[in-house]
Design a protein that fits this description.
- The chain has 14 helices and twelve strands.
- The two termini are about 30 Å apart.
- The model has no long low-confidence stretch (mean pLDDT about 95).
- The relative contact order is 0.10.
- It has helices at about 5-15, 35-45, 60-70, 75-85, 95-105, 130-140, 150-160, 175-190, 195-205, 215-230, 245-250, 275-280, 370, 425-430; strands spanning about 20, 25-30, 55, 110-115, 115-120, 130, 325-330, 335-345, 350-355, 390, 400-405, 420-425.
- Strand 4 and strand 5 (about 115-120) form a beta hairpin.
């Protein structure tokens, strides 16, 4: 369960630029060519090889989850959950909600949900395989892993990974962890009664008490508390109160609400479930005052350049101008380039360049000599010409000016009639439309 040794490697591999879909429609993450054989062995030795796809039939997944949940000491799981607020790893947040799902779930047959024929209307199970390492990675950085999107198989994998460590060695919360739990719950109770989920999340985030200080950190905590039943309504209970079907949990007050029930329906006026809090956490003595916070971790030194990963080129100085060429990092092991046709401010005064891909792919950053004489690269599916207005060309990581005053290459097609407007980041994200290799 310790990701410290391989987390930097997994961050590189599970970058969105490496995601693809195989011939069977299964999502996978391509391992960059810059990941060395030694680094691959490091992942294997740690037991976290990428694209470790796990697939279970409906009945096998639900039976396995119920069996695992029954083996877990509820007090140990509750302790681990509280420790995830501070002293323990964030991945421990997923264990207690997974136990709640397994203990509550009744034996049932697969019932298709609407048009989604492979998703169960009772438990959210789907026939799609899950990448064990990817789910563990997200548990480590977000505290997720029990959600309806992952179904019972996600909870199975969370518990299987947890029980690799004997339960007597699971983390115990520090006094500050216990104080954090009660303090955050007190803040929720003190909110105006009409306060809904999104504002509650913002209020907790403003405390900056949890790490990392990101919206998703506080969102996952609120979702976990609601999933279990700490935050619930009489009509929309959590799983420690009563089992609710996937169809019930998928209901929302409006299409604008992203979170599932019961959190989708909860407001501060509903308060917290005191009986459940006592059942789960009543054995943990609440400190009378706030225990001292641990010292902040030392500021991390800039990460060393991984072996085999090319450094970004030094950017040419000067203002953005027509005839500029920018190197664009598509992935850590693949670069391209884009040409600036013209520069103009938009209605808000933001300076934008009209950009078009050049026909070049390279494992190292292209140079001015490498792009000389290159033509443009059109859309793959229909051969149409494509351009876009980009802002932030000189402020975006992985986008560097490498040449200036370059004559525009000829093109048989005219400038497109309609151009999208975006940022320099789009040059990375949209390149697959022009380069099928991506």
């Amino acid at each position: 369960m310790d990701f410290d040794s391989v987390l930097p490697l997994l961050q590189r591999i599970y970058a969105s630029a490496n995601m693809g879909i195989d011939d069977n429609g299964q999502t996978f993450h391509r391992i960059p060519d810059t990941v060395t054989a030694q680094e691959r062995q490091q992942l294997a030795d740690a037991g976290w090889e990428p694209n470790d796809q796990v697939q279970l039939p409906h009945d096998a997944a639900t039976q396995r989850l119920r069996s695992l949940a029954a083996q877990v000491d509820l007090r140990r799981a509750a302790d681990a959950f509280v420790s995830s607020l501070g002293s323990g790893g964030l991945h421990w947040q997923a264990v207690l909600p997974s136990v709640a799902l397994g203990l509550a779930m009744p034996e049932h047959a697969m019932q298709p949900m609407g048009q989604q024929g492979d998703r169960c209307a009772t438990c959210f199970h789907t026939t799609s395989a899950k990448d064990r390492t990817l789910l563990a990675y997200f548990r480590s950085i977000e505290g997720s892993g029990w959600s309806d999107e992952d179904g019972p198989l996600g909870a199975v994998l969370a518990l299987e990974d947890a029980v690799k460590l004997p339960q007597e060695l699971w983390p115990r919360p520090t006094p500050r962890d216990v104080w954090l739990l009660h303090h955050l719950l007190d803040l929720l109770r003190a909110l105006p009664p009409a306060t809904r989920y999104s504002q509650a999340r913002k209020s907790l985030q403003e405390t900056k008490l949890l790490r990392p200080h990101k919206p998703q950190r506080y969102a996952s905590l609120l979702e976990a508390l609601a999933f279990m039943g700490v935050l619930e309504t009489p009509e929309r209970p959590g799983l420690f109160t009563r089992f609710t079907t996937a169809r019930e949990r998928d209901q929302r007050p409006s299409v604008r609400v992203e979170v599932p029930a019961p959190l989708a329906w909860w407001s501060a006026g509903d308060g917290t479930n005191g009986a459940l809090l006592q059942r789960l956490f009543g054995h943990l003595e609440r400190p009378e005052g706030e225990p001292a916070a641990p010292p902040p971790p030392p500021r991390a030194r800039p990460a060393a350049q991984p072996p085999g990963v090319a450094r970004a080129p030094r950017a040419l100085p000067g203002p953005l101008a027509a005839g500029d060429v920018y190197a664009v990092r598509f992935r850590e092991d693949l670069w391209g380039a884009a040409y600036c046709h013209e520069v103009t401010p938009d209605a808000r005064g933001i300076l934008r360049g009209r950009m078009e891909y050049l026909d070049i792919l390279s494992p190292i950053p292209p140079t001015a000599d490498a792009v000389a004489g290159r033509g443009f690269r059109d859309r793959t599916h229909d051969g149409s010409r494509w351009q876009t207005w980009c802002a932030g060309l000189d402020k975006t990581t992985g986008v560097k000016r490498i040449a200036a005053q370059v004559p525009a290459p000829p093109h048989a097609q005219p400038t497109p009639d309609r151009l999208p407007v975006g940022s320099a980041k789009d040059l990375r994200h949209l390149a697959a439309w022009n380069f099928p290799q991506l």
